[in-house]
Write a structure and sequence with these properties.
Radius of gyration of chain A: 13 Å
Shape of chain A: globular
Number of strands of chain B: 11
Order of helices and strands of chain B: EEEEEEEEEEE
Distance between the termini of chain A: 37 Å
Oligomer: heterodimer
Helix content of chain B: under 10%
Largest sheet of chain B: 6 strands, mixed
Structural class of chain A: mainly beta
Shape of chain B: globular
Radius of gyration of chain B: 13 Å
Number of strands of chain A: 11
């Protein structure tokens, strides 16, 4: 099973709202990722968690707050977003050993900020 | 900074035609992935190549990894409308966690 799940599928929020995106995988992967993707562009890395610890933050604004409660779950908390934050948000996971680190992506959450 | 030059950026062909997409770099990658993505969906992994000179086949799709592990190609034989989508190459370089993505090839196969 190479499935990464994400909820919700679609999210519309105002600039003063607080919302959360959720991601789950049961492949035993210990690295999990958040990406942001604009239409017809490649994904842009936001955060990487390795063994439930934040490993990489690609200078993401603090209105995005990641959380990794356990090895299977990854959240992205959203607060005071801007309209330019509207995008497809992708979660991915991978192994952390064994030679190569193929990333498996979830279906994404389409976020619209009004 | 590692770069992956992917070409062509756009490709519109008729059903039944063949096509090749290229990803080239001056950097060496330990592995390279190809993904296909449909609008509003996440990228779906097609293949991972890890050995220089490696060729992998997935039905009508053939993937090659260059001998020096700096370039890769995706060849589709007898394209079908269901092949329509954004094709992304992505390489693992110096960091285990950071992928270098090509800019993508938007393929449209017309019936």
């Amino acid at each position: 099973d190479t499935e990464v799940t994400q909820t919700p599928k679609h999210l519309v929020m105002g600039m003063t709202n607080k919302k959360s995106l959720k991601c789950e995988q049961h492949m035993g992967h210990r690295a999990m990722y958040w990406y942001k993707q604009k239409a017809k562009k490649p994904p842009e890395l936001m955060f990487v968690y390795s063994y439930e610890k934040l490993s990489i933050n690609e200078s993401v604004p603090s209105r995005f707050s990641p959380e990794c409660p356990n090895s299977s779950l990854l959240n992205l908390h959203l607060h005071a977003l801007q309209p330019e934050d509207s995008a497809l948000y992708l979660c991915a996971s991978s192994l952390t050993s064994g030679g190569f680190y193929t990333q498996y992506f979830g279906p994404g959450t389409r976020l619209t900020v009004l | 900074t590692q770069l992956l030059e992917q070409s062509p950026q756009f490709l519109s062909i008729q059903e039944g035609e063949n096509l090749t997409v290229y990803c080239n770099s001056s950097s060496v990658f330990s592995s390279l992935q190809w993904y296909r993505q449909e609008p509003g969906e996440g990228p779906v992994l097609l293949v991972t190549v890890v050995t220089g000179g490696e060729v992998k086949k997935l039905k009508r799709l053939t993937f090659q990894f260059g001998d020096a592990r700096k370039d890769s190609s995706l060849h589709i034989t007898a394209a079908q409308p269901g092949d329509t989508g954004l094709y992304l190459c992505a390489g693992n370089g110096g960091s285990n966690y950071k992928l270098t993505f090509g800019k993508g090839t938007l393929l449209t196969v017309n019936p």
